[in-house]
Amino acid sequence: MTAATIVAALLAGAYVVAVLEGWATTGRFQPGAPLVAGLALLGRESVVPRRPDRLLYETAPVLLLAAAVMAAAVLPLSPELVAVDLATGALFVNAAWAYVMVALVMAGWGPNGAYAMVAGWRFLGQLIAYAMLIVMPIATVGMRAESLATTAIVSSQVGLWNAATQPIGFVLFTLAAMAVAFIPPFDLPTAPGELAGGVAAEYTGVRLAIFRLARLVLVVTLAAAVAVFFLGGWLGPWLPAWAWTGVKTLAVAAAMFAAGRFVPRLRAEHLLQWTWKLGIPLALFNIAWVGVTLWWADR
Amino acid sequence: MSTLQHYLVLAGLIVGTIGLVVTLLLLARAVGQTRAEAGKDVPFAGGTLAPKPVWVRYHVRYYGVALLFLAFDMEMAFMYPWAVVYRELGLPALLDMGVFLSVLFLGILYGWSEGALRRQ
Fold first, then answer.
1. What is residue A289's predicted lDDT score, i.e. its pLDDT?
2. Which residues of chain A carry a pLDDT beneath 70?
3. Closest residue of B to A294, CA-based?
4. Among A114, A132, A250, B4, which residue has the fewest nearby CB atoms (within 10 Å)?
C-alpha cells in the first residue's frame, strides 16, 4: 500500500518535473505538454537501428527506470510514507544511482551508432567526476544522524537543516545530483546540438518515451534526495509532512532547471578538472568540518 | 516490516517496472507496426553513413582520473560504517580517518603534479 502511494507520488512528481523542464528549456508554461508528447511517442514508429546489440539496447531504458524507482523506494515522503525503510537507505540510493551510469553506457553501446557510443563513454567520465561528490556529502549527513536510514537522517535535522550545518556538502551534492540526472550544464551524454541526442539518439517512439520517463523519475529522486538529506525532508510547520517533502522536492528540481538555463554546457575534461581539483578537496574539507563541529557540539 | 519483507517490496517494484515497460511496448505494438523501409534503420551520423561498426577501441582520455577514482571509491566502503559510529567514538575517529584521507589527498596532489588530471 505504501509502495503504491510512493509510485503514484513518483509519477505525479515526474509529470510536474516534465512541465518544469519544458518551462525552463522553451520558456513556455505548458501543463498539458508532457501528456501530449507521451501519447505522440506511443503512436510513433519505434525504429531499431541495424545490427544493434539487442540485449543492451532493449535493457538500457528499463534499467534506468528501475534504478530510479529503486532510489525512490528508500526516500521518505513522511515518517510513515516510505516504501522500504532500510537501515542502509543512504547507501542503497548510491547503489541505485550507480546503475544510471551502467544504463547510459549500455544505451550508448547498444544501438551501434557513433554518436551514442561517444555519449555513453562520456557519461562514464562524468560518473568519475560526480560520484565522489555524491557519496562524500551523504557520508557526512550520516555522521550527524548516526544512521544511514533515510528517516533517521530527516529526524536528525529537527533543530537545524543539514543545508545550514554543512553548506559545502549541500552545494556539492546538489551540483553532483544535477550531473547524475544530466541536467544542463552537465547534459554531456545527451548534448543536444552537439551529439544529436547522444545516448537517446537511436531511441524512437515508445522506447524513447520509456527513456524519457526514466530520466524524469531520476530527476525526481535526485531532487527528493537533496530535500531529504539537506533540507529537512518532511519537517516544517502547518502543512502535512508529505506535502513538505513534495514542495521541497519540486522547489529543488525547479532550482536545478533554472540554474542550468543560464550556464553553458561544460566540456567533459573541464568537468573532471573542476570536480577533482576543487570539488573533492572541498568535499574532504566538508568531512573534516562536520567532524569537528559535531565533536564540538557533543563535547 | 522485516528485512526480508523490505527486499520483497523492492523485488516487487522491479517486477512492476518491467511490467510497465512491457505493457507500454505491447500497447505501442497494438497501435501500429514499424514499416521496414530502406535506410531507415541506419544510425544517425550527421548525414553520412557510418562505414564501420562503431564497436572499436575508444581512447578513454580520462584514464588518469579513473585510476585515482578507484582508490577513492574503495575508501568510501570504509567511510560509511565509520560515519555511523563517528559520534560515539569522537575526535580520535576523525584523526584516524583524517590520516587515511590525507594519504588519499596526497595521491590527488601527486597525480595532479604528474598531469593525471589532464585530458590525456
1. 92
2. none
3. B87
4. B4
In whole angstroms, give the CA distance from residue A145 to residue A90. Answer: 11
What pTM value is reported for the model? 0.93
pLDDT digits (tens, 9 = 90+) for A197-222: 888 888 888 999 999 999 999 999 99
B103 grid coordinates: 594519504
Helices (H), chain A: 2-26, 33-43, 54-73, 89-109, 114-145, 150-155, 162-165, 167-180, 205-230, 241-261, 268-274, 280-298
DSSP-assigned states of every residue in B54-92 = S-S----TTHHHHHHHHHHHHHHHHHHHHHHHHHHH-HH
Q: Where are the domains of chain A?
A: 2-298
**For A84, which of B6, B88, B105 is closest by C-beta distance?**
B6
Question: Structurally, how many domains does chain B consist of?
Answer: 2
A76-106 in b/e form (b: 16+ CB < 10 A) is bbbeebbbbbbebbbbbbbebbbbbbbbbbb
A291 three-state secondary structure: helix
Q: Do B76 and A114 touch (CB under 8 A)?
A: no
Structural domain includes residue B69: yes
Does residue B113 sit in the same domain as residue B80? yes
* Nearest chain A alpha carbon to B119: A269
Weakest-pLDDT range from A115-129, A259-273, B50-64, B67-81: B50-64
Residue B98 predicted with pLDDT over 80 = yes
| A130, A208, B5, B32, B88 from A38: Cα distances, Å | 30, 9, 34, 16, 51
Is residue B97 domain-resident? Answer: yes
Q: How many CB atoms lie within 10 A of CB A164?
A: 13
* DSSP designation for A199: G
Helices (H) and strands (E) in chain B, counts: 3, 0
Q: Give whole-number Cα distances, A193 to A69, A172, B47, B87, in Å.
A: 30, 27, 14, 49
- Cis ω before A167 (30° cut-off from 0): no
